[in-house]
Amino acid sequence: MSRTNFDQLLQAGSHFGHLRRKWNPAMAPYIFMERNGIHIIDLNKTVAKIDEAAEALKQIAKSGRKVLFVATKKQAKDIVAEKAASVNMPYVNERWAGGTLTNFPTIRKAVKKMTNIDKLMADGTFENISKRELLQITRQRAKLEKNLGSIADLTRLPSALFVVDVCKEHIAVKEANRLGIPVFAIVDTNSDSKNIDFVIPANDDAKDSVEVILTACCQAIAEGLEERKAEKADEKAAAEQQEEAAEAKPKRARKARKQTEEAEKAEGTEEVAEKAEPAKEENKEAEAKEEAPAAE
């Protein structure tokens, strides 16, 4: 069953492309027709592409890896922040800092700097500095939070990039391509889809269009996270059963050993008793013979 449908996308305005004179030939396979000088996107292909992308995103989430969402345009930034945060994924919705991916160690240092400022503020270290210095540090902290706060938990490179508007986020796409990171993107008719691994042909300017697509994709990510959680629970239960079995095995072995020893001891007692019986009979016979002459 598809995660979206034709009518849902049609109502959201996902089929509206750009003016014909602004089109990119790479998007030709996804264009259904032209109406009043505007390209109309084939929503049947959009539905199929959403399902394909959603399944791939689900597998990434299931494996415990991260997807970095990027959307700095006004129409999409709030939606991306909400949807990405709902599935605990990092996102960039202010300004893409050049080198966020290709110079990741430096970005991590900036994030650590922000964390250190928080620690120093918490333990009262800044109480002894001047107001001017405190103001400078506070402004620096606010700037770092604005640009990097949403990726503070990203301790390693993401396994995928999800972009809204390939043209606007071309630097992010280039960095991902350079590092071999798969790119998922909502691609409009004016964009180049050649460097995108998972193309979702749709209107990337309408808020409703972006929201419908992101909802479907984030729902798939949530499913992947739930499956991962269930698998971990099963693995934990299996490990506990193995531990219990391992603990029970020595107990069973000791019990079996004890039973064997008791059985051997019982057999030994029976053998001694059997050997003692003939000797006892012989003693009786000897005593009888000795008593017979005495009687005579």
Short description:
With about 300 residues, the chain is of the alpha/beta class.
Task: Please characterize this protein's 3D structure.
- There is one protein chain.
- The chain has helices at 6-12, 43-62, 74-86, 104-122, 131-148, 170-179, 207-295; strands spanning 16-19, 31-35, 38-41, 67-70, 91-92, 160-164, 183-187, 198-201.
- It is an alpha/beta fold.
- It has one domain: Rossmann fold.
The geometry reads as elongated
DSSP strand count = 8
Number of structural units classed as domains: 1
Strand content: 5-15%
* Coarse structural class: alpha/beta
Q: List segments where confidence is low: pLDDT < 50 over at least 5 consecutive residues.
A: none
CATH superfamily: Glucose-6-phosphate isomerase like protein, domain 1
Q: Provide the succession of SSEs.
A: HEEEHEHEHHEHEEH
Distance between the termini: 116 Å
Key terms:
Rossmann fold, three-stranded antiparallel sheet, elongated, Ribosomal_uS2_bac/mit/plastid, Small ribosomal subunit protein uS2, ribosomal protein, Ribosomal_uS2, ribonucleoprotein
Write the layout of secondary structure elements.
Elements: H1 6-12, E1 16-19, E2 31-35, E3 38-41, H2 43-62, E4 67-70, H3 74-86, E5 91-92, H4 104-122, H5 131-148, E6 160-164, H6 170-179, E7 183-187, E8 198-201, H7 207-295
Parallel strand pairs: 4-5, 4-6, 6-7, 7-8
Antiparallel strand pairs: 1-3, 2-3
Helix pairs in contact: 2-7, 3-7, 4-5
